């Protein structure tokens, strides 16, 4: 459990815009080990998405370094290390839901039969069985988001990066998917980077919680979870859980201007 | 089919304007003739005469219709006086030219989108190529092809292709670049290669642009095929009909060839439109 | 049989009846020739076609052939079936034009594309500027037809005795409504429809022999056409693939053409040639050709063909 | 032979140079964006010169670029006069009127589904009339001067512009339109604030294609009757006279003017549709 | 407080799709009075968005009737009765953030000065001051969502329809905006229709909570809140609050297939 999978050192990232530069990440240092489940939490606009994108080589840092499995994020991407769930569903409008889920499978060269099998399985997982033949605009917002989660789970990436995947889901579906995700993680030993706004969700899921502060995005706290790996839903009522949640809330509040 | 009534209404409007314009434009000639003959004209005489001149400045619809009827229905289609025969000659060059032009246009666009060197060097010259007046270099193309033994349909098709590839390039380059950042990023996270991003993302999202370009392109092909008939001796085809009509001042013949060409163009554009609708529907892009 | 390709100067019409008759009647076959006749048109320069190898022999007017020769394309006249010129300027009478002296200030339609030389040299002999300056004429590039005259966009237009003139008549104007100036009558006639080949090819004996046979058969065709005017017109109609020519017009055209070919047995009359050259060189500051051409014609072919 | 070899070697060198520059880090620099197409063009010219000289192509078929350049420098006044007649008076006027009319018609018929279903097919029909047929008629109607050329251009650019604008006006997405509905925005407000901006990428497609069509149209129309100036007049006259140098000189002017025209429209497009994904990457 | 603003009776809504009809709403009866704050909660895909869209005349019911202020939704729309926040931000890419917020103001004919004043005010409200000149793609997901909320608040619609407006926001911003919204509502007497997946949020904000069941969307429970109009944040710890929340959770759970 101690090989560093993702290692960011003194990471800086600045966007050039029409009215001046925007510093999105500033001096970010973080090590994520194999099998870690890391949640990122922080106020809106603090750079969570940007950091995830930098890990997946979708943004180029303007300073510092980042390595994934010891190589550059670009090389890791070539090796198909990532499954990514974007903040918006981003389904291709000309493909049906099944077609969208098949997309990565086609690209990675799975056989037709295997594709069908996997599509069926993940649709089941996100509770969308029966909607495979619909087009994205025929689904509700939450259903689209679930479809995009299914798409990222359909193939076996070592690193799963999820940007607020459960944002548009109701509590009950959310709890259900949280359980499913934990089970998948325990079974497959994936490394997961997970952005969320829900403190209980972050605490429930993670082995490590990264609290970020607003612009320029910095890491203000990294909390190692002391919860056991086996986590029934009612662990959320234990004092241990509540204590971690409290610490996260304090960290978050510190970054805000209100009160 | 819901468009029948609107189309007929518009056509009726145009025909009414057309008759009116014909009376206005043709009356000068009627008056001059009468003056030479030294007769006085009533308004009704003018109207009757303007609608039945042999070489009017603007032939009226029924004259054109009669000529069309005569040259399509009443002539065998193998006859050289049959517009269907000439139309077929032009159509075959158009289709071949369109196939070449579209193929070349798409290939160029793909190259431009995927290869920076091509983007930077080819696009400006593709544009420049279109500013060369085709009618000016067409004879040279014909002469050069002739000297290497290429004759017949191909030179015309090449000229037709030359006119149709450009709208396809412009539209396709735009279309292939239309996927938004998130759609591209998704494929990047899969480590998809260029070919895969092309087939799975760029091509599907370029479809609306492609079809718009194809509609313009097929009309341009037809014009190209007709233009190409001039420097090949203008012996067959709709262009030859127009030209000989114009050479002998046979306005009615020009107009009927023109209408035939426009019908052909409308059919071709209509077919592309139909394919567009079917394709986009199957892709779930029409709601 | 030897293949020979002939490029016409204009579309299939009675102006080229001799060649179509020779083809139809088998005169070329008798000479063991396999002749292909390519119609011309407004976008086809015969001299360019022969230079590009698209034809072995072309029909062209002497002014443009000589101008091409001066540009470095060595065209040689091997036969001259047309003795006289059919070109004229046709004006509407109501414009008040009665003689060339009335031209200044008027708008004249002229054919370009290499056909403008006779007009330009005539005007420069008359001393009338054509560049739009004071006391000159306004020149229009006339399209393919006589519309500018009918639509009163021009006071005069160029016509051929055998073709466009009759289109004006057919359009409803009477001969009395028109005033015509034939180049022939104005003393500025230049040679029209001659047969031209590339000079270097003539030194090839086999090619020269083909040309001899070609000219012989063609002249046979021309004489047949002159005598059987209506039949010749029908043969031309047969070969017109556009289906645009009318019988009435072609028969009348053939009648007029016969008048122009009448005086020729095919051999170029050196006197006509000299007159043409003189006319083209007399153009004041802007002559069509600047020095008398050398070797622009030969009797070698016609001598052999007609003996 | 040496000419041919020289041309081929030059071509190979230039090819490698361009690929190197385009794939280097400088590819977005201004100098690189100018240098690459220029080198490409120079290569074409060198190969052309080499082939013409190497194979001894007669100059009445294809003159070498050097001869064309000599002709250009000699005939500046004539070329300028022709340019004004054809490009400024004919093409530009026709372009503005034709694109303007097509745009207006697109907006008009967009308002009425009835007209859209009625006029669009008929509009396609009329605008697909080939120039060879329309030019003689328009010359007969509008006279020999530039007015008839402008009319030909109007007819030529109408269709591409119309199709693109109509397509563009349909390009806004459902949610964007729903938003306008919730404001109960009037037709014109929706048009001005949503549908026209969303249509701009398509509209500029039409405008760009039309630049080249306008120039071709104006030149070709002169073929069917003109005063004795203009680029089309000069080209057809000089072809007949075998003055191929002059023909290519005019073509060169047309190519430069046309490219500049296109470039101008493309630059405006870049400013107006900066937000479109195709302009952002 | 008893004029019915929105009245739906036996509402049915069926979508025709490529593989058969989808019934999104079935026999929905609901009355919303002037000044009500109504939350809609229910599993993903149950028809919440569809119902909101039907109120705003963006979808046509296939059965039953719906009236707004006594007239048809269409006529109400003509009278500019609605402010709508969509589930996705839907900002126009060619306008800056300020420009996007000005859009409704321009349409409704506010003066230039008033426009500037209001834009400044609502940007402040959603904590985006300083981002007015940026373009939408230069903002994070949560910032875009806040911009779209600002856009709907900039003008004074009587009926505010909000479709998961705070889904992409962290707890603290969310609490802050909840307070702001309640204050605005108390001040202006607006009628608000609000879709959310957060049970505490629904209970905290609403005078009436509508619980919906999955396809075909039906209303399973309508809970009238007994909470006072004045609601400090810590009302969420009162037994009354927890009881209502419990009832909502039970209603929600009944509609789910799990457990
Ligand atoms: N393409 C871009 N151009 C310019 N600025 C950008 C761009 N993308 C992000 N930013 C800026 O970078 C900062 C961080 O954005 P990021 O999307 O990482 O935030 P986030 O933490 O994911 O927020 P949220 O929770 O709202 O999604 C923001 O201030 C945003 O305005
Ligand atoms: N345009 C459409 N065409 C066909 N079916 C549609 C369309 N819009 C919605 N639906 C279907 O209607 C049902 C209800 O959708 P709706 O968007 O109202 O759900 P929702 O309650 O808003 O869900 P979420 O919380 O996930 O946003 C879903 O089953 C969806 O598939
Ligand atoms: C553009 C154009 N140029 C010339 C002519 C006339 N023309 C062409 S060939 C020829 C001689 C043989 O008929 C004549 C007089 C025309 N009509 N249009
Ligand atoms: Mg984000
Ligand atoms: Mg929804």
TrEMBL record, chains A, E:
Keyword Transport: yes
Sequence ranges assigned to domain ABC transporter in this UniProt record: 8-239
Enzyme class: hydrolase
GO molecular function: ATP binding; ATP hydrolysis activity
EC number per UniProt: 3.6.3.36
CDD domains xrefs: ABC_NrtD_SsuB_transporters
Highest taxon, organism lineage: Bacteria
SMART domains: AAA
This protein's UniProt keywords: ATP-binding, Hydrolase, Nucleotide-binding, Transport
Record-stated family: Belongs to the ABC transporter superfamily.
Protein name, UniProt field: Taurine import ATP-binding protein TauB
Record gene name: tauB
TrEMBL record, chain B:
GO cellular component: plasma membrane
Top-level division of the source organism's lineage: Bacteria
Protein's organism: Actibacterium lipolyticum
Alphabetized UniProt keyword annotations: Cell membrane, Membrane, Transmembrane, Transmembrane helix, Transport
CDD domains noted in UniProt: TM_PBP2 (cd06261)
Pfam families the record matches: BPD_transp_1 (PF00528)
Coiled coil segments of this chain: none
Transmembrane portions of the chain: 7-25, 88-113, 125-145, 209-232, 252-275
GO biological process assignments: transmembrane transport
Protein name in the entry: Putative aliphatic sulfonates transport permease protein SsuC
UniProtKB/TrEMBL annotation, chain D:
Gene Ontology CC: plasma membrane
CDD domains for the chain: TM_PBP2
Topology of the protein relative to the lipid bilayer: Multi-pass membrane protein
Residue ranges of the TM segments: 31-48, 92-110, 122-144, 150-171, 202-226, 246-268
Keyword Transport set for record: yes
Keywords from the UniProt entry: Cell membrane, Membrane, Transmembrane, Transmembrane helix, Transport
Gene Ontology BP, a term: transmembrane transport
SUPFAM superfamilies attached to this UniProt entry: MetI-like
Keyword Ribonucleoprotein (UniProt): no
Residue stretches making up the ABC transmembrane type-1 domain: 100-272
One Pfam family cited in the UniProt record for this chain: BPD_transp_1
PANTHER family, per the entry: ABC TRANSPORTER PERMEASE PROTEIN HI_0355-RELATED, ALKANE SULFONATE ABC TRANSPORTER-RELATED, MEMBRANE SUBUNIT
Protein name: Putative aliphatic sulfonates transport permease protein SsuC
Organism the protein comes from: Actibacterium lipolyticum
